[in-house]
Specification:
The structure is a homodimer of 276-residue chains.
Chain A: E1 2-6, H1 10-19, E2 25-29, H2 33-41, E3 48-49, E4 61-64, H3 68-76, E5 85-88, H4 94-103, E6 109-116, E7 136-140, H5 147-159, E8 164-168, H6 170-193, H7 207-213, H8 220-228, H9 231-253, H10 257-273
Parallel strand pairs in A: 1-2, 1-4, 2-3, 4-5, 5-6, 7-8
Antiparallel strand pairs in A: 6-7
Helix pairs in contact in A: 3-4, 6-9
Chain lengths: 276, 276
């Protein structure tokens, strides 16, 4: 089975690295020839291409790991093997999936996916099969999907190290992701940008500040696109957050130790049960 | 030199563990006899006591690692060696330091400190000398401190593994800590409590949500006390945060990609330079 990964950044690179030794014929497409050269030299891909003309006609599974805006162009400009599967790693789904489906012939199946894994750093050098190990993966099911293709994808990503694989609609995906992924990025960016820089902050931090600002190191192109194309759900999640923030604020102002403790106990229980 | 650590929880426990092999005579005080037994058996303390009557008369340095509210009682109820130093690990300073100073005889020096290190988990079992390694430490200077005592404390904690040791007033301490430590706890608690639990959240998270909620596992007794006794600064930090949060919200509502990117670039630069 031929698997082609498009875009050997931190996610696509982690795919080719996780695929090594799994029995697939793996090829890579990237605009950066140096990345292709390294990926080939290190034995992760059989061959690298700067476009899809040659290899996509033969590829049984094509995983497109590009920015959402470019995925559509890539699909439009390329011809895929009949009966093959195309997948992606786009972080938001509903705005984009219908457009993608319209571009794809009926004899090719689109199985959209979201690996809930990544790194703050960009590029192939930061890619690793460890990125996927124990992580969550979401398959986004639509009306044109065949059951066996969904099952194939479940087994495929489980084999790459993902611990949990869930199947849901594009709308449900975008709703939960606005909370679990986009809202944390809003908070991290707002936190670090709210530093009045009166002190030499880095000398007065512990792990709490380090943890909460790690993702403030953010890819601005990607995340502006993700935020603006998932506006409704993101604003809903931000409003939910704001309610809880205001509740703590009121409790602090009015000295309500009981309310603070109640909210802390609730938070502790939720955190302890989060991945049980 | 005799060093006595009072309260062998995660911070006090890390003190005795980091002190091992450094050439001090280390004793421990804790209300839990089992903890004292383990600490002695594992070779971290020469002897353990459930009160301070016997050992504090001989102790050259006493590090009180108790909740802020109990530190004052402990000082009031005990007699310390003349010429000795008392220190603490309390997370807020201004509300409490003047009260502590009034309780202490002039021939004993109080050198208040804040190790910016800890664990979400409580107790001696989670204590480790690794907790202090590379961490920040703040010495809180007041008008009664002698220069040589401050210098002693700087050297003492550096030797235990702290990377940066800064000296500041109790007010400056409480201001910066409201931002770097208390505000992140407000955000983590608000984030996890704002989950509407429509989905099985733990199956749809990546490291961003894990990172931002780690400290939502929070000791409710301790943090209610810390928040309420640092109200003004904490509310100031929360308001600063809220400004940046609202700014992102407005940019999302009005589709201002340029504003989002500008804030993301600012956040990335600040994160990259945070500990340089």
């Amino acid at each position: 089975m031929i698997v082609t990964v498009v875009g050997l950044g931190v996610v696509g690179g982690s795919f080719v690295k996780a695929l090594k030794g799994k029995g697939y014929e793996v090829y890579g497409i990237d605009t950066d020839e140096q990345t292709l050269k390294i990926a080939k030299e290190e034995g992760y891909i059989i061959e690298g291409y700067t476009d899809g003309k040659e290899i996509l006609k033969k590829s049984d599974l094509t995983i497109i790991c590009l920015y959402p805006s470019i995925v559509l162009d890539f699909i439009k400009n390329n011809t895929f093997k009949k009966g093959s599967i195309i997948s992606d790693a786009v972080g938001i789904k509903s705005y984009f999936l219908n457009q993608a489906l319209e571009l794809i012939d009926d004899d090719i199946e689109y199985v959209s996916g979201h690996p809930m894994a990544g790194r703050e750093k960009k590029g192939f050098a930061y890619a690793s099969k460890e990125v996927f190990k124990g992580a969550n993966y979401i398959i986004i099911e639509h009306e044109k999907n065949k059951k066996e293709s969904i099952t194939f994808m479940q087994n495929f990503v489980s084999d790459l190290g993902f611990k949990s694989v869930r199947i849901m609609s594009p709308y449900d995906h975008d709703e939960i992701i606005s909370f679990t992924s986009q809202l944390p990025h809003v908070l991290a960016v707002s936190l670090i940008n709210s530093d009045n820089q009166k002190y030499d902050t880095g000398k007065y931090i512990g792990d709490s500040y380090r943890d909460l600002t790690r993702i403030a190191n953010i890819n601005e192109e990607l995340w502006a696109e993700l935020f603006l194309n998932n506006k409704e759900y993101l604003l809903q999640s931000m409003n939910q957050f704001k309610e809880q923030f205001d509740l703590l604020k009121e409790a602090i102002i009015s000295g309500r130790e009981d309310v603070l403790k109640e909210k802390f106990i609730q938070a502790t229980k939720r955190r302890e049960n989060l991945e049980k």
